[in-house]
């Protein structure tokens, strides 16, 4: 082997004889699982408005800020420029998906990218309304509490859709996408 081919091969690893490639870097994975844990804690376990609920909200907000910055300066598959689709690319992907002929993607597919952007927007709005509820100017404002609750429930609905789509796509492309978000690795075609 030449030195150049040694470098190319060293980027790949084999899992059960199947070559894999690193797709999701640690920042993307930590962000993902921080949001999952934070949303589960704040939606189902912690009392609304209490200190622990607020701390988890600030942790999620901080993770979101880091992820947005990483979307501009991070690794290839983390960058928004790599996966945010234009309308034509999204329409083309959705048409192929509707016929069961969607291509497998190493990074986010166009529909997954749109879902990610929607979830990040909902997270930002939920964090912002939660922060606003702690300000004297908005103390006790029912519309703000209702908006915060609506946004949190919208995240739950979108997260269920996201998880369901990941499971369906895992089956369709014979690839465990949940495991890839843990290990950071996906099957190399």
From TrEMBL:
The keyword Membrane appears for this protein: yes
Keywords carried by this UniProt record: Cell membrane, Membrane, Transmembrane, Transmembrane helix
Subcellular compartments: Cell membrane
Cytochrome b561 bacterial/Ni-hydrogenase domain ranges (all copies): 23-184
Origin: domain of life: Bacteria
A single GO BP: respiratory electron transport chain
Protein name according to UniProt: Cytochrome b561
């Amino acid at each position: 082997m030449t030195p150049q081919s040694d470098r190319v091969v060293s980027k790949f690893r084999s899992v059960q004889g199947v070559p894999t490639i690193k797709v999701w870097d640690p920042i993307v994975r930590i962000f993902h699982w921080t949001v999952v844990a934070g949303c589960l804690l704040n939606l189902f376990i912690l009392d609304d408005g209490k200190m622990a609920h607020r701390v988890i909200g600030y942790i999620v907000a901080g993770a979101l800020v880091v992820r947005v910055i990483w979307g501009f300066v991070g690794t290839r598959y983390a960058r928004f420029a790599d996966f945010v689709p234009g309308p034509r690319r999204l329409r083309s992907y959705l048409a192929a998906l509707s016929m069961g002929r969607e291509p497998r993607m190493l990074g986010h597919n166009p529909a997954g990218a749109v879902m990610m952007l929607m979830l990040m927007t909902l997270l930002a709005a939920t964090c912002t309304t939660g922060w606003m509820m702690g300000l004297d100017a908005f103390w006790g404002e029912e519309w703000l509490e209702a908006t915060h609750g609506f946004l949190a429930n919208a995240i739950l609905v979108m997260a269920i859709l996201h998880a369901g789509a990941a499971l369906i796509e895992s089956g369709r492309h014979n690839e465990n996408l949940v495991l890839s978000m843990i290990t950071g690795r996906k099957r190399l075609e």
